[in-house]
Design goal:
By secondary structure, the protein is an all-alpha fold. It has four helices and no strands.
């Protein structure tokens, strides 16, 4: 069904949703719940570290800039520079080793959550593709 509809030019999002058998529906629901829960935890980690950076190094009322809001993409040296530039403050030298460790630990936690989330998304894509009778690559995200 799905391959013929794709060949006819119908976009995946316009295809009728196939009825999933009970076990497949339950498995997809479980995968979706796991993905949503993990994504929420990762989002909270992002917010918590950002809040802590602002609380520890920012003057009252300042908002983090774009680099600090994506702290997990920065090396510690880049994070230190972003604190200086966006919060107009420095990480005191005596706290840098502690913050380097915190940053490394939280980056690793974020990377692990991102990898597990990608695995869940691939599993969901594979099951949905099977329901639509298409290849997982045919389910492109916009």
């Amino acid at each position: 069904m799905g391959r013929a509809l794709l060949a006819a030019g119908l976009a995946v999002e316009d295809m009728p949703i196939p009825d999933a058998p009970g076990p497949a529906r339950a498995n997809l629901a479980g995968l979706a719940l796991s993905a949503a829960t993990l994504a929420a935890r990762r989002d909270e980690l992002e917010r918590a570290v950002t809040r802590r950076l602002v609380a520890d190094f920012g003057p009252p009322g300042i908002q983090p800039g774009p680099r600090l809001r994506r702290w997990w993409e920065l090396s510690f040296d880049e994070l230190h520079a972003a604190v200086n530039e966006e919060l107009h403050n420095d990480i005191p030298e005596r706290y840098r080793p502690t913050w380097a460790e915190i940053h490394a630990d939280e980056r690793a936690t974020h990377a692990d959550a991102s990898a597990r989330l990608a695995d869940l998304e691939r599993a969901i894509d594979a099951q949905v593709a099977a329901l639509f009778e298409v290849e997982p690559g045919d389910l492109t995200r916009k």
